[in-house]
Amino acid sequence: MILLVVGVLIFSDFVFGPRLLLYKESGGDSLNDIYPTLVHLSDYIRIHGLPSWSFSVGMGQSIYYLVGELILEPVVWLPRHLIAPSLVYLHLTKVLIAGLLFWGFLRFRGVCFSASIVGALGLAFSAHMSMGACWITSADDTLCFTCVLFAAELAIVSGQWTLLPIAVALSGMVTVFHLYLSAILLCVYVPMRLVERDGWKPKRIWVVSSRLAMYALLGGGIGAVVFFGSAYLLLNTPRGSMTMDKFAFGVHSHVFELGTPLYYFTAIVRQFAADLAGTGDAYVGWRNYYESPLSYCSLLALLLFPQAFTGATRRQRILYALFLCLIAVPVVFPWFRYLFWLFRGDYFRTFSLFTIFVLLLLSTSALSRYVVSGIINLRALAVTLALLLAFLHLPISQIGHIVNNQLKWSVTVLLVVYALLLIIGHRTKRQKLVTWAIVVLSGAELVWFDRITVNGPTVLKSELSQRTGYNDSTVEIIKDIKSSDAGFFRVTKTWGSSLANHPSFNDAMVFGYYGTSSYSSFNNIDYINFLISVGAIGPENVATDSLWSLGLMWQPLLLTFACEKYAITTQPELFDQAEQYEHIKQYGNVYVYRNNAFLPFGLVFNEYVPSYIFSGMSDSMKSQTLVRAVALDETDVPSNNELPRLSLGELEGRIHDVSLEDVFVRNRSTALQVESFDQTRIAGKVQLDSAGVLVLQMPFDRGWHAFTNGQRAPVIKVDAGLTGVILQRGQNNLELSYRRPFLASGALVSLLSLLIFAAAARKWPNVPKS
Predict the structure, then answer these.
(1) What is the pLDDT of residues 667-695, one digit of tens each?
(2) DSSP letter string, 489-506
(3) Which burial class, exposed, middle or buried, applies to 641 when counting CB atoms under 10 A from its CB (0-12, 13-18, 19+)?
């Protein structure tokens, strides 16, 4: 009930007021990424079933890695118009569950009732969790890793291990990378907890740790039906493939290299309050508002965590010191934090959550001793308070530059009040009564500070019914285009409809058309490789443009090659000057153009250019080449040598002698005649006078399989990242189908794991004692 009351007070403007959990400023990912994804999933599962391939993401890619969102974000099961108003209730549900799990975790550790409530409040409304209002992944992290901690503690204390595999499987539903993070959490916590609880008993530690490791591994097996395919997709992204040097974030020259002064000041300042260094776009600390340290979980935790050493045994002191070292060293020496992320990120994020776990564990243990035994070191308390206040008020210009002065004084008052309450309780022997006052004050503090975090500029409920944002004229335009044109084509939209301050690249997911742009951390690597190859992504901005990809926008010939048929723009002067575009309709200040040079999906080429020659061409020549021949790795050339090779000189001659108009006519006459089209199945026919390659203007993915006249046809990578099918001379009745990679093997492993789980739960319901 306390968690619910605090949660409703923090989010009152969203529950009872006009706001939606869709942010316009630094939380713009909620509008530009999260909301489009949820809406697209809602539409997809109703029309096509479980997430698979989608042509509305980039130039097409698998969205199977989003299967976990069907569990973690149940709003996707609602009709799309109910998703935005439901986001606040989804977040509050996660807050309540995470808070209750952490309360249970602390209770299993022997923390008293009232101190456990303080800990539950601190976690449920920590900076990491409150940021989950903007970035859903943070809320999912908090929920899932708290569940893993609770399950581990339950297994250690009571021997009941059956929740652990489920918790680990749930964590992997966020992303498969979270299985690795769960492993880190368990590998650190379980042995140290066993030492804390039972002393140094190597056999006991080995037996219990290894058994729990097997149970955790079983959780990975249970979710294999999702994890295998997700891992394949993750490894086929620019970030996950580790094939792009630009994505090797944070590799410093040596292990003990230090950060900048601003970095350290920010790390300390944001322990006091998430918004002490500014809110949203007004944030002035290191990095950005979301990816900088987010370890605030109540001021009481800062004041009390040193007290954990008071009244503790020698063994506990050593372990507590190790816990603090594990969270301090990666902050002091950033190399260790980059190692935590396997050098694929230089941010804090989940590391901040693990820091919160440590701070709350230590501070609630100290508070529990205070309540039960009256143990507190007043001298240490005074020193801690003095150090905290000294840092806040030190006359250092850089601290003064980043700290919000008004909030600084609020922090000061709260720290002093907490200290006075602890002293009064100790002097009057009324620790229990004072602790309940501290519970109330903690709740008030979190309401006060979290309301600053969550009440940034947001979309209003009234805007859902207005002709703005994702409800603008694009809705009518796409509806009109689809009603008059049922074929496969792509649409270029030159502006983003999102109301966020930052541009959106995922409009296709909301409005239901096919484009070429995409904003995602999991963009298909062959989609990105193709864009890099043709110059749509420059070498100097690979890391950024691979996430925020404009696709082929402002590349007329490449867009024509990629099946662009319509362009929607608020800048008509740019299209009026281009001969290939014809203005067909106007909707207010939005203009619709038809690309009269449109090329259909599935182009046939009877000649090829070796990939090494293609990669050495200029960008303009590559565009000319794509509509005239296919670029192939010579290892993929049919062995019967029926596919002629073009030399660079021959290609240059073709470009000079044959006009684009004549090339387009030839392309249209020989292209695939699509008879049926679905996201995961395409059927059609094509007549060839000689062997050739059918180029499908979508990124390569091993999940696509082709059959011609009932026989399997080779699917290969062409044009530096697109999909090609080798066809023989004559009539080819073609069927293309997408099968989620590793689905069968993953399903088999999941089935076997479930059988093992059931058998083990029946035969060994408890963890052995030794």
Answers:
(1) 999 999 999 999 999 999 999 988 899 99
(2) -EEEESS----SSS--S-
(3) exposed
